[in-house]
Design a protein that fits this description.
Helices cover 38% and strands 17% of the residues. It is built from eight helices and five strands. The protein has helices at 2-7, 12-19, 69-72, 94-98, 106-120, 150-163, 174-177, 181-201; strands spanning 26-34, 52-54, 63-68, 82-90, 132-139. The protein starts with a helix and ends with a helix. The chain has a five-stranded antiparallel beta sheet with strand order 2-3-4-1-5.
């Protein structure tokens, strides 16, 4: 969405196409629990040992997903007896299913994350004990949605640049490649090769 405003002076067609990409609101809620609060998982490798978890809407859980920060990044959580979690709440269907997060306070977002953690990770007896809150960040326009027609929007945006006579400008980012870090890196390498080919084709001055 930021690129749309940057490119509008160059091409209204490109800016209009990019402005049509929806970005739902998402909240990032970082909390800390004692390890003793977690149920022992069936795999037997200890609680929250891994990358994290995603929650299909069919489960009726509002939290989109949870990253096990203290497992992913060694020493991010300095206390070995504590666990740090990063919860994401919101998304494209949250307004339809739960009423949206726009008017929720930080405290309410923490309560939602905690309630879902009790359902998925925590022991029932800690349901009334809220975690230590390390941070709450709300992104009004967070994750680009690649819904039906997305490729057509990108084609229109690129054609708009061509029609404006722009050369050597390449669209890149998670709204083009996909939102995962790995895919962004891979696509960045692809674009770097395209840039190199373009520069190599220019005649030296």
């Amino acid at each position: 969405h930021a690129v749309a405003s940057i490119l509008r002076p160059i091409s209204n067609t490109t800016a209009d196409a990019l402005s049509q990409i929806p970005y739902p609101r998402v909240a990032a809620v970082v909390v800390e629990y004692p390890k003793s609060a977690f149920r022992e998982p069936e795999h037997g490798h200890g609680p929250v040992n891994g990358f994290g978890q995603l929650h299909p809407r069919s489960q009726g859980i509002r939290t989109l997903g949870t990253l096990y920060v203290s497992s992913l990044f060694p020493h991010r959580e300095p206390d070995e007896d504590k666990v740090m979690l990063l919860n994401f709440i919101g998304g494209a269907r949250d307004p339809e299913l739960f009423g949206g997060i726009e008017n929720l306070s930080e405290g309410q977002l923490v309560e939602i994350a905690h309630r879902d953690a009790v359902r998925t990770l925590l022991k029932p007896e800690v349901s009334h004990t809220l975690p230590r809150v390390l941070g709450v960040k709300i992104w009004p326009r967070a994750i680009p949605q690649m819904d039906i027609g997305h490729n057509d929007r990108l084609t229109t945006a690129r054609n708009g640049l061509q029609q404006a006579g722009v050369q050597g400008l390449f669209l890149a980012g998670n709204y083009v490649s996909g939102i995962s870090v790995g895919r962004c890196i891979e696509y960045g390498e692809d674009v770097a090769r395209d840039v190199n080919s373009f520069l190599s084709s220019l005649r030296p001055i």
